[in-house]
Amino acid sequence: MEVCYQLPVLPLDRPVPKHVLSRRGAISFSSTSSLFGGPDPRKLSQRRGGISYDSADQTALYIRMLGTYSVCCGWLDTCLYLQCIYIDLWLFTPSTESVSPWGCRCCRPLSFQRRLAVSPSLLCPSSRLTLCFLDDDYAGQAKCMLRKVGSWDFDIFLFDRLTNGNSLATLTAHLFNQYGLIELFQLDVIKLYRFLVLIQEDYHSHNPYHNAVHAADVTQAMYCYLQEPQLSSSLTSCDILLGILAAATHDLDHPGVNQSFLIKTNHHLASLYQNTSVLENHHWRSAVGLLRQAGLLEHLPVEDRSNLEMRLGSLILATDISRQNEYLSQFRSHLDQDDLNLQNSAHRHLVLQMALKCADICNPCRPWELSKQWSGKVTEEFFNQGDIEKKHGLEVSPLCDRQLDTVPNIQTGFISYVVEPLFTEWRRFCSTPLSHTMLSHLGLNKAHWREESDPSISHAAFEDSFSLVHFIDVPLRI
Ligand SMILES: Nc1ncnc2c1ncn2[C@@H]1O[C@@H]2COP(=O)(O)O[C@H]2[C@H]1O
Ligand SMILES: [Zn+2]
Questions:
Q1: Atom of ligand 1 nearest to the CA of 218
Q2: Which residues are Zn(2+) 1-binding (predicted)?
């Protein structure tokens, strides 16, 4: 770990004074305006309850704008989002600049007498797009992390904190920049920015697992796979654009319950998609809806646009875990025959599908400290579903009963029946240091969970849960 990865983080090289910290629950400014270079603090503190400092650890990371404080025009979502960033900047950047990068009056807070101080990095030239999501002070920390965005031990939870909960938008913008996709596809940066904010907001932040941080984690993993020599030497920029877009959007608007829940509760999505890949179809259609809403690809010829949308769908649909065996058998048969040719676009597409599938369930292959956090989150979501099922007198879905199922047992089963078979094939295709690292973490994590598992719970029961009901429709070859 590098120094820059460690908390606590002070955005300024000066401590927040005790008397400021003591004014919790209000806008807490120093009584000396020189500290933040702001106007009369007594005026500002009239807006009590708007911003608060947390605890006495003297880190300003916790400062948040808790409500909306200006009116907005057609840029509604984007503007509200930006305001939160602006107020952080305003608090901590003793800058005298006062510019709205969008040239849009609605970005200015009405209640404050002073105009916003906006850092030049927010002025959004495409080359600095990533910084649009960060204020100058967090940028140092988050930027430092982004230098290692291709590391398998990238801590997405820390990155999410450093970006004020904007990990998905920040990371994706960074990858678009890194690959030069803005120039290659002549993308409008404001539309791109708006699209990234829209997708981030479309994830449900109250889902313990299926939220924007999971999407950011999958996007980071996807980037690691795209960087593997076999892929990086053969993928086209279109493949890369699709790979990143699919990873970022693959669980859009996930309701926090699984397909069987939607079917048994007669959810309209289940009938809309005829009980087939219900969630994945919805993620895909939501992604297309947001792409069109933001107008990100509207400058492309209709045929190219619709081709991109269809390929995006084919990637997202591949993440339906209940169809894992179909994809795995197809992939395995190519590996057995050694006939994958990455000059062939259909083969490249299959490899992208497999890469996305690996990225989606790679959390058990992360270092233990990260992996166990994901295990806790995914189980919490399963158990929440089980609680709702119990409450409504429905049969509790497999793995969703907090009275019967345990994290270690679920993990042991998931790793054995779902993750290992997939990553074993992936390593056959891509026998690189990364693949070995992932399988080595997987082995260690499985051993950890095995030690904690309850041996009285039959393994066969878990095999049933994973292979027959919850995930896999055909028994797996292990
Ligand atoms: N660590 C885990 N333990 C158990 N199930 C998991 C784990 N990680 C992912 N999953 C499941 O695998 C599924 C892959 O697709 P989803 O992201 O839609 O939903 C995911 C979860 O249902
Ligand atoms: Zn997912």
A1: 17
A2: 214, 250-251, 360
Return the residue whose CA atom lies nearest to atom 8 of ligand 1.
361
* Ligand 1: nearest atom to the Cα of 470: 22
Non-local CB neighbours of 207 within 8 Å, separated by 6+ positions: 254, 255, 256, 381
ipTM for the predicted complex comes to 0.99
pLDDT at 21: 52
List pLDDT tens digits, range 343-364.
999 999 999 999 999 999 999 9
Structure tokens that stand for 306 in this block:
């619709």
CA distances from 195 to 115, 176, 211, 277, 360 (A): 27, 13, 17, 25, 21
Q: What does the domain layout of the chain look like in residue ranges?
A: 3-123, 124-359, 361-478
For ligand 1, atom 1, name the residue with the nearest CA: 375
How far apart are the C-alpha atoms of 362 and 422, rounded to whole Å? Answer: 10
Helix locations, 186-236, DSSP H: 189-202, 212-226, 229-232
Which H or E element spans position 64?
Answer: strand 64-65
Please answer whether residues 262 and 255 qualify as being in contact, where contact means their C-beta atoms are separated by less than 8 angstroms: yes
Is position 214 annotated in a ligand binding site? yes
> pLDDT digits over 77-129, tens only?
333 333 333 333 333 222 333 333 322 322 322 222 222 323 333 333 333 33
**Cα separation, 194 vs 291, whole angstroms:** 10
The domain covering 361-478 belongs, at the CATH homologous superfamily level, to 3'5'-cyclic nucleotide phosphodiesterase, catalytic domain (1.10.1300.10)
CA of 429 from ligand 2 middle (Å) equals 22
Residue 361 near ligand 1, beta carbon < 6 Å: yes
- The answer to whether 416 touches 461, Cβ cutoff 8 Å, is no
Rounded CA Rg of the chain: 24
**Which pair of tokens denotes residue 69?**
């404080």
- The pTM of the whole model exceeds 0.80: no
Q: Please, are residues 253 and 282 in contact by the beta-carbon 8 Å criterion? A: yes
Q: Could you give the CA distance from residue 266 to residue 275 in angstroms, rounded to a whole number? A: 10
- Nearest 5°: phi and psi at 166? -110, 35
Q: From the DSSP assignment, how many helices (H) and strands (E) are in the chain? A: 22, 2
